[in-house]
Amino acid sequence: MSPASFHELVLSHASIRSYQERKVPEDVLQRILLAATRASSSGNMQAYSIIVTTNPTLKAKLLKPHFHQSMVTDAPILLTFCADFYRMRQWLQLNEAPLNFDNFMSFMIASIDAILASQNAALAAEAEGLGICYMGTTLASCGPIAQILNCPPNVVPVVGMSLGYANESVPPRDRLPLHGIVHRETYRHQTAAEISEIYRDKEEQGLKRYLQHADLKKRIEEVGATNLAQIYTKAKYTRESHLKYSRDVFDFLKEQNFLNFD
Ligand SMILES: Cc1cc2nc3c(=O)[nH]c(=O)nc-3n(C[C@H](O)[C@H](O)[C@H](O)COP(=O)(O)O)c2cc1C
Q1: Residues forming beta bridges with residue 142, ordered by sequence position
Q2: Mind listing the pLDDT tens digit for each residue in 23-70?
Q3: 170 CA: nearest ligand 1 atom
Q4: What confidence tens digit (pLDDT) does each residue in 152-189 have?
Q5: Measured over all CA atoms, what is the biggest interatomic distance in the chain, rounded to whole angstroms?
Q6: How far apart are the C-alpha atoms of 248 and 252, rounded to whole Å?
Q7: Which one of 28, 47, 53, 201 is most buried, by most CB atoms within 10 A?
Q8: Distances from the Cα of 149 to the Cαs of 211, 254, 257, in angstroms?
Q9: What ligand 1 atom has the least distance to the C-alpha of 14?
Q10: Is the shortest distance between the CB of 13 and ligand 1 below 6 Å?
Q11: Does the Cβ of 232 fall within 6 Å of ligand 1?
Q12: Whose CA is nearest to atom 10 of ligand 1?
């Protein structure tokens, strides 16, 4: 693939939330999964597992922990990327090696591995003409999802995506300008005027987009949000909801043997 066609692929990315019933051929799925495993990983340990779910009954069970997002049942495939030191720890045991990797740092390493693999899968899927959409509900509901997917200790679902042939055509969404994201050599503090400029287009386009969704528009009015910053913090991602998810994730990390400090 030429740099130009790779660039075209990544610049045309848009999350797909509506899918055709058409099945994804097994050879296509295999290429996507192989691409996922070619991602870099810490020490080449590949401390992650990928759970491929196509069974309609299982997908129906996953609907609630994924907050009833319709793509869970509509997409032919769900991929759940799990931070996983269970497999490696079994191998350590078989080789009489110390049973490390049961702490927070190990969870972070395994999560990074899983997330890098997931983005390789996303790009490979798009190169195959498929659509994807990540689901942040995977981490928010990691405990219930792990239970449904039968995850053992030291395995935590961190990121998931729906996968299938698109049933919608979505134009690429806005992004912050490069100069707002990139710092040369060291971090350069941005002035208030620069921050306003960096977010100006997003404010306009984001507000327009959210007001098009009837449910979200109602919620925006209920909480009295008058700009995009307030929509993000009063309607979409409240302090209360994120405190709850933080507690849920930490409780589950403890349960899954990832929070040992001795
Ligand atoms: C970690 C993560 C979690 C996400 N969770 C959801 C989700 O639960 N539901 C959803 O509809 N989109 C979700 N998305 C998709 C984002 O909304 C989307 O990537 C973003 O709005 C930019 O749009 P684009 O992907 O079309 O460019 C998620 C994306 C990421 C990276």
Answers
A1: none
A2: 999 999 999 999 999 999 999 999 999 999 999 999 999 999 999 999
A3: 26
A4: 999 999 999 999 999 999 999 999 999 999 999 999 99
A5: 61
A6: 6
A7: 47
A8: 36, 18, 18
A9: 26
A10: yes
A11: no
A12: 135
